[in-house]
Specification:
The chain is α+β, with helices and mostly antiparallel strands and 234 residues long. The protein has two domains: 10-75, Arc Repressor Mutant, subunit A, CATH 1.10.10; 79-231, Beta-Lactamase. Helices cover 42% and strands 18% of the residues. A hairpin with a 7-residue loop joins strand 6 and strand 7.
């Protein structure tokens, strides 16, 4: 994992942090909300937001509250575009076949980040797993699946010792599971996705409850991951 240390540019770092705060909020925030999250004076938050607004990365509503702008969607679509393009049909097929939200997660520093996701076409209570959603790589099925692709010395420094046995078991059987770890009452099954020339990833599903056995779900995910890997020549 990258060494922790002071960012080369504090202003740029704060601007990126603003985008992260807005993405996590899922709702427009006031300037005071943003300033509080960054622990900076309101005037600093205002200048950061004005700069981001100028570039179309954030927008303000009639009440002066801010949210991510449409330009962010265009930037996100360009991230690993070929991987997203090849994965989307497979994720769609799995989501509709199993009736579960299916998504592709990648490693970002010490976090597991959803790159693209698909909700099932017909579902009574679909689970939302939005692109950009992130959580520590040490929790959740996709995080554990990703860790099976990494040597232990590259794990986060604060990874609990008992995680080693869990990840070893996941590596042996070819899939990882989790329940109530990231979001209460939700289960997840994930398989690792190793791609040539890219960082570790995972294909996963998240759901409330299902009559399907974890092994059945994992087998379908493994077939999907293999199809994506072959399409990318990896």
């Amino acid at each position: 994992m990258p060494d922790a240390g002071p960012p080369p540019s504090q202003t740029l770092s704060r601007g990126i942090r603003v985008l992260e705060v807005l993405a996590d909020a899922r709702a427009p925030l006031s300037i005071d909300d943003v300033a509080g999250a960054l622990e900076v004076h309101r005037s600093i938050a205002y200048r950061l937001l004005r700069t981001l607004e100028h570039h179309g990365l954030v927008v303000r509503d009639a009440h002066g509250r801010v949210a991510l702008g449409a330009r962010m969607a265009a930037l996100a679509a360009g991230v690993a575009h070929d991987l997203q393009a090849e994965a989307l049909p497979e994720l769609t097929a799995v989501a509709n076949e199993l009736g579960m939200t299916c998504f592709l997660a990648v490693l970002d520093h010490d976090e597991c980040v959803t790159l693209v996701s698909v909700e099932p076409r017909h579902a009574v209570a679909p689970v939302a797993q939005r692109p950009g959603t992130r959580h520590p790589v040490t929790v959740g099925a996709p995080g554990k699946a990703i860790l099976t692709l990494l040597p232990a010395e590259q794990w986060p420094a604060d990874a609990p010792e008992e995680l080693r046995a869990t990840v070893a078991q996941a590596a042996e059987r070819g899939y990882a599971t989790s329940h109530d770890e990231v979001i209460p009452s939700l289960e997840s099954v994930a398989v690792p996705l190793a791609l040539r020339g890219r960082g570790p990833a995972a294909v996963a599903v998240v759901h409330v409850a299902s009559p399907l056995d974890h092994r059945q779900v994992a087998a379908r995910l493994t077939a999907s991951a293999s199809a994506v890997r072959e399409a990318l020549g990896g």
